[in-house]
Amino acid sequence: MGNGLKRAVFLDRDGTINLDTNYLSRPDDLCLIPGAARAIARLNQARLAVVVITNQSGLARDFFSEDDLAAVHAELDRLLAAAGARIDAYFHCPHHPQGVVQSLAIECDCRKPGTGLVTRAAQEMGLDLRGSFMIGDRPGDVGCALAAGLTAVRVLSGPDHEEWLEPAHHYADDLAQAVEWILGRLGSGR
């Protein structure tokens, strides 16, 4: 890239890495989508930063706590490590305008499709958004990617994959296919 900044692949969590169980709050309920761990390991091997960007409105809705979220992420880290994969950083939005936790019941720029989490990750991690990618299963993921100048990859592994047509740069069945496409574009597919 020439500017000393690193390329990244931003990943949505629910419906992209793991099955979307609607407000995942317990580590025991975490189930990886087949091929996801290996796909993340391939990104790690290609020396791309792997960053989870996730809306977690269950915090604003008081469905679970920050400790519960941390426990889910610790379990995700454990499952990925068993496959030789890792997430370099997690960034989450706890807000929702209709939340019941008053301090979190706000409009914000970090809730996807807002770009606040991507911008924060780029600043904190020294990431170059040009030449970086975002993979997700929902309109907010694609909208965030496009607004942040990322290459948007829509996966069809989420629960509502046929309910919308957002103009992504590429479409893939799942994370494994999305990563294959990205690595092919970067010339590091094998």
Summarize the structure.
The protein has 190 residues and is α/β, with parallel strands linked by helices.
Q: Enter the CATH topology name.
A: Rossmann fold
- The total of helices stands at 5
| Euclidean distance between termini CA atoms | 21 Å
Identify low-pLDDT runs. Answer: none
Structural class: alpha/beta
CATH architecture: 3-Layer(aba) Sandwich
Shape: globular
Q: Averaged pLDDT, please?
A: 93
Number of separate structural domains? 1
**Order of helices and strands, N to C?**
EHEHEHEHEEH
Compute the CA-based radius of gyration. Answer: 16 Å
Characterize the main sheet: 6 strands, parallel
By CATH's scheme, which homologous superfamily applies?
HAD superfamily/HAD-like
Strand segment count: 6
Strand fraction equals 5-15%
Portion of residues within helices: 25-40%
Structure description:
With 190 residues, this protein is an alpha/beta fold. It has a single domain (8-186), classed as Rossmann fold. The chain contains five helices and six strands; from the N terminus they run βαβαβαβαββα. Strands 3-2-1-4-5-6 form a six-stranded parallel beta sheet, sandwiched between helices. α1 runs parallel beside α5. The two termini are 21 Å apart.
